Amino acid sequence: MKCVADFHRVSDARFNLDGGCNYKNISLPMRATKGSAGYDFITPDGISLAPGESCVVATGIRVRIDEGWVLQLYPKSGLGFKYGLRLSNTVGIIDSDYFYSDNEGHILVKIENGEKPLEIAAGKAFCQGVFVAFGITYDDEVDSVRNGGFGSTEK
Questions:
Q1: How many domains does the chain have?
Q2: CB-based contacts of 18: which residues, under 8 Å, 6+ apart?
Q3: pTM of the model
Q4: pLDDT averaged over the chain?
Q5: Within a domain: residue 148?
Q6: Which end of the chain is more exposed for a tag (fewer CB within 10 A), N or C?
Q7: CATH assignment at residue 114
Q8: Does any domain span residue 114?
Q9: How far apart are CA 135 and CA 154, in angstroms?
Q10: pLDDT band for position 40 (50/70/90)?
Q11: What span, in angstroms and rounded, lies between the C-alpha atoms of 109 and 9?
């Protein structure tokens, strides 16, 4: 098993700036079992969503990832199956250079509820992250660097 990343907390100031309010409740993502591919992201605050509602979850987490790898975020399978919970961008993509962004690489997850009321208590898993290797083309000549958070690679 190859180790490619490590999770960290963002600063208390960054967490509060991004809408978090229970810094002490931040837990670093962990796998539930030895055979699990996904690292469970825990919500520091409780979530209550009516059908069709959405919210942004300030996780308080950042991740340092080796170059050539990406962290992909998905809703927890049970929440997707039982409630229709989904990520607003379908799959969250956390690039290796996001860790060094102006926003400390704070992982914010926007979720949308499905067809029935959803309650997730603080301290419960709501999404999971899977590390995936990726390739680039032989003629890739990118030399720009990230300097911000969401959408900053388009600037």
A1: 1
A2: 10, 58, 103, 106, 108
A3: 0.91
A4: 93
A5: no
A6: N
A7: 2.70.40.10
A8: yes
A9: 20
A10: very high
A11: 15
